[in-house]
Amino acid sequence: MLPNVFSKSATLNSRHLWIEVLAVAVVFGLLSTFMSSYWIVDFMIFCIFVLSFDLLYGYMGHLSFGVMLYYGTGAYTTALWLSYGTHNAILAVTVALLVTTLLAALLGAIVIQTRHASFALINMAFNEIGFFFVRSFLKDVTLGDDGLSCSADPLFGFIDFYNNYHAFFLLLFVLLSVYTGLKLITDSPYGITIRCISEDEERVRFLGYNTTFYKWLTFVISSVLAALAGCLFTLIQGFVSPEVMSPFGNVNVIFAVLIGGAGYLYGGLAGALIFMLIKNYLPLWTSNIGQLIPFEIPQWEMWLGIVLLIIVFAWRQGVVGIVREKILVHLNRRIIALKR
User: Fold this and answer.
1) Which of 1, 201, 268, 331 counts the most CB atoms within 10 A of its CB?
2) Rounded to whole angstroms, what are the CA distances from 317 to 40, 264, 312, 326?
3) N-to-C CA span, the chain
4) 240 has which bridge partners?
5) Cα–Cα distance measured from residue 9 to residue 19, given in angstroms and rounded to the nearest whole number
6) Is 152 helix (H, G, I), strand (E, B) or coil?
7) Which residues, in sequence order, are CB contacts of 93 under 8 Å at separation 6+?
């Protein structure tokens, strides 16, 4: 039996929730003071994508190398609907999410029968198949490597997706909504159950829970949220190419979660921001340094890999995990001092 996700006993303290939501809004507001709105919007789409992966990996403990399949499905379905159907954004996103739900439900029934490396690699295999479809097999429709351009009518008649300020506030609203929803879910009996499945699935099954259903449902929810990020990418950019389904893109999401700390939603957000800041500013820094020295330095991608590896291995618990540990140690020392 599935626990009531929004039962009173599991509802997060509303005061703490609103503080976290407000903190996220303030962080992006501060970033907007010294960064372009275009970059901020891109950051928020990536944050939604990372949150979807954190639910699957951080909470349920299933590492997947195929999340780009669902991100790309959302992006391409939205683009195809806008190009060959109507320019109604709500309808396009609705169709994209329904298609992704069906795809995730079907593939999820297969992949959740596996664990660990098998789970990760089977998902990557499905991702490779999807990438082949949009790049080659369906290139008459998707236009292959040339990409597919599309446009959407203003949302509700006045929200222009191609206006940076409109896009900023729209994406901020969606990001905060996704964060709030996931926070309520992960702190509910359902969220506790999937954490227990991550720790000891056999014991959870012994207690009478249908762990297969829980894993399948979590996989579908994670995939649909990833597709939502893909839909938003298409609406804002007005263009998609096979890169949105490239299996190599899975590495970005995995690194972001590892940097911030898996199993903490705000860790996913922190990791996503750190990753995107490094990825966007490192090419500028390496270019400026290259102009100051007499010899040629390696491309910025190599430095990106080195920096990410140093961060991941130095902070195995992620940034948020390290901060939480320091705070707990400090509080314990204070409590011991007061008892004396």
Assistant:
1) 268
2) 26, 11, 8, 12
3) 48
4) 148
5) 20
6) coil
7) 78, 228, 231, 235
Please give the single-letter amino acid code of residue 269. L
Distance CA 255, CA 60 (A): 17
Structure tokens, 219: 């996989």
CA torsion sign for 152, 155, 158, 163 is negative
Answer positive or negative: Cα dihedral of 49, 71, 145, 123: positive
Q: Which two tokens stand for residue 313?
A: 């291995």
Cα 261 from Cα 325, distance rounded (Å): 12
Per-residue 3-state assignment (H helix, E strand, C coil) for 290-340: HHHCCCCCCCHHHHHHHHHHHHHHHCCCHHHHHHHHHHHHHHHHHHHHHHC
Helices (H) and strands (E) in the chain, counts: 13, 2
Furthest CA-CA distance within the chain:
76
Contacts (Cβ under 8 Å, ≥6 apart) of 16: none
Written as tens digits, the pLDDT of the chain (340 aa) is 444 544 443 444 577 788 888 999 999 989 888 888 888 999 999 999 999 999 999 999 999 999 999 999 999 999 999 999 889 999 999 999 999 999 999 999 999 999 888 999 999 999 999 999 999 989 999 998 999 999 999 888 888 898 888 999 999 999 999 999 999 999 889 999 999 999 888 899 998 899 999 999 999 999 999 999 999 999 999 999 999 999 999 999 998 998 888 888 888 899 899 888 888 887 777 776 766 676 666 666 777 778 778 877 777 777 887 877 777 777 777 777 776 6
The domains of the chain are located at 8-277
